[in-house]
Amino acid sequence: MGIECAPLLAALHEVTFCGGEVWDATSFAALLSGHGTEVTLALMGKDPAGFILSRTVLDETEILTLAVHPDFRRRGIGKSLVRSVQGKGKVFLEVAVCNTPALALYVQCGFVKAGLRRGYYRDGSDAQVLVSNDA
Ligand SMILES: CC(C)(COP(=O)(O)OP(=O)(O)OC[C@H]1O[C@@H](n2cnc3c(N)ncnc32)[C@H](O)[C@@H]1OP(=O)(O)O)[C@@H](O)C(=O)NCCC(=O)NCCS
Fold this sequence. Notes:
By secondary structure, this protein is α+β, with helices and mostly antiparallel strands. It has helices at residues 6-16, 25-33, 77-85, 100-108, and strands at 37-44, 47-57, 60-68, 90-96, 112-117, 127-133. The chain has one domain: Gcn5-related N-acetyltransferase (GNAT) (Aminopeptidase). A six-stranded mixed beta sheet has the order 1-2-3-4-6-5, sandwiched between helices. The longest helix is centred in the N-terminal third of the chain and has 11 residues, at 6-16. The radius of gyration is 14 Å and the shape is globular. Coenzyme A is lined by residues 16-17, 66-68, 73-79, 93, 95, 99-102, 104-105, 108.
């Protein structure tokens, strides 16, 4: 998917991260214009159910964001999206230390702790850095 999906990603991001750090369509368009950035959209029937946005530089991939619509959670969509960016080298990401569902998902996908970024988020909370390396 390309830059044309920026409004859809923004809408999904808003419903997924409501009350949190929501990215708008302009931000998604800018990210999608960048070199090495890719998005994979998950559909349930015709409904957009979630997506993963990643950026690859050489053999390292960063997961920039992962979102599954609340109506479609606990059906393996998040895991499938994460798996779709694995297997080609190192994959890393930051996740809020209090985000228990996402941490559990990443551990299930083989990620391990690689560091802590203090005050990483706008609200001052810390981020856990996770990495997987299963090329
Ligand atoms: C985190 C998120 C992507 C998970 O998506 P999902 O499609 O529901 O995840 P899956 O169904 O693939 O779950 C895979 C595993 O993750 C873990 N998990 C997922 N949701 C969980 C929850 N609410 N509580 C505890 N563990 C959870 C479980 O181990 C689960 O395996 P199981 O269902 O066999 O027990 C989704 O909850 C979401 O979009 N959250 C808000 C946005 C977010 O936090 N994104 C990640 C930021 S880095």
